[in-house]
Amino acid sequence: MEENRNSAISVRNVCIDYKSLKTGSIKENLFKIKKVEQEIFHAVRNVSFEVPEGQILGITGKNGSGKSTMLRAIAGIFSADSGEIDLHGHTISLLSIGVGFKNELSGRENIILSGMLLGFSRDFIMEKMPEIIEFAGIGNFIDMPVKTYSSGMYSKLAFSITAILETEIMLIDEVLSVGDQKFKKKSYNKMKELISKRDRTVVIVSHSMSTLEDLCDQIIWMHDGEIVMYDKPEIVLPVYTDFMR
Ligand SMILES: Nc1ncnc2c1ncn2[C@@H]1O[C@H](COP(=O)(O)OP(=O)(O)OP(=O)(O)O)[C@@H](O)[C@H]1O
């Protein structure tokens, strides 16, 4: 039973704000007429959920509803302004476009760097290197700086690193929706294979109803930083689809 499984991720009453300085008009700035005010945007508001080990959780919601912010907080890139996030000692990796690669370094060098940032030894990464390169399937580009990559190639490499250097928790931000059809299918199948082993906890942020329906055990629908619904895909997705129509 799901209730008896250990928790992989506990999110309790989490709030995350973005703080920026309110800019006045050029005249106001020039003559310092107005005091600089801080603008606060509440991106995640009092969010709580629990992901048991081996569960696949999907997060969906319209643009700007706080999904990526939540994911980055789970990954430890942002800290919550209030509330708690507990990973119960599990290793975690975040797969997201534009996060994690050093543009000047080659694909091969980025594999080593990413692997080490994930906490794997150099020997282990070198052992897995051929498998990662083979899965990414980007040919000679593997020895070119990643700044020369297309976004599809970039995500192929990112996906391959995370899929082959397995961490206990894998966070995926919309990556399955990029890349060409062939890679999309390959990464989708790899995800399914990883999921079927049931030893990995996955959180997927996606706008694709078919991905969410096919892969996930539970769905969170976020809206304006809050959870609107949190239930099985067959309960949440029809209501969400209706809402978005
Ligand atoms: N660095 C930032 N500074 C200020 N506001 C931000 C910043 N990053 C995001 N936001 C705002 O926070 C809100 C949540 O953003 P977030 O990226 O988490 O949404 P999302 O649900 O992932 O959106 P999408 O579906 O478009 O990826 C948005 O309104 C966004 O404008």
From TrEMBL:
The answer, when asked if Ion transport is one of the entry's keywords, is no
Q: Name one GO molecular function term.
A: ATP hydrolysis activity
Record's CDD domains?
ABC_KpsT_Wzt
Which E.C. number(s) belong to this protein?
A: 3.6.1.3
Keywords assigned by UniProt? ATP-binding, Hydrolase, Nucleotide-binding, Transport
InterPro entries with a match to the protein in the record: AAA+_ATPase, ABC_transporter-like_ATP-bd, ABC_transpr_TagH-like, Bact_Polysacc_Export_ATP-bd, P-loop_NTPase
Q: What class of enzyme is it?
A: hydrolase
Any one Gene Ontology cellular component term annotated for this protein: membrane
Family annotation (Pfam families): ABC_tran
Ranges for domain ABC transporter: 25-244
Asked whether the UniProt record includes ATP-binding among its keywords, one would answer yes
Q: Which PROSITE patterns match?
A: ABC_TRANSPORTER_2
Entry-linked PANTHER family = TEICHOIC ACIDS EXPORT ATP-BINDING PROTEIN TAGH
Give the record's family classification: Belongs to the ABC transporter superfamily.
Can you say what this protein is called?
Adenosinetriphosphatase
Question: Whose protein is this, by species?
Answer: Anaerobutyricum hallii
